[in-house]
Specification:
Largest sheet: none
Radius of gyration: 20 Å
Mean pLDDT: 76
Order of helices and strands: HHHHHH
Oligomer: single chain
Number of strands: 0
Shape: elongated
Low-confidence stretches: 163-172
Amino acid sequence: MTKRDLFVLIIKLFGLYMIANSLFNWITFNFSFAMRNIDLFSILWMVIALAIMVGLFVLLIFKSHKLVNLLKLDKNFDDERVEIGNLNPSSIVKLALIIIGGLMIINNIPVFLSQILFAFKRDSMGTEFHPNDYYNFIASGIKVLVGTLILTNYSALSKRLKLKEKTDNLHQ
């Protein structure tokens, strides 16, 4: 299996995970929120949010090759082929960082979008934010940002983690 095939497979699995996560968590939560106060803004928000989720799904499932090219996921590896049984520690760390970054993004985009909706709804109704709302909004935004940074800088992080590992071995 080539590196490219492996990353395309991983991205498609992220897409399937995202659609399952969205169906069972995000859509039902936002639908119940919109049904409490049916107005044009709630309906518009549901349509926009649904379009974003469908767009992400299409991108992850049907455009995964272009996503691999855009993020340059198949670069910075020693070999062209990935032998699952013979992964070196550096490749395992890179793969783990890609999986962690992807899961952070996929798990927190729905929460972040929901918190944006809540902010608009509270602003339009003139009510104050509760401290938990600030926490959820900021926490989910930071998680999406950190996941994106991990996913786009996995190679540099892998080198940094490997460097730390070498210095730990020197001190022992």
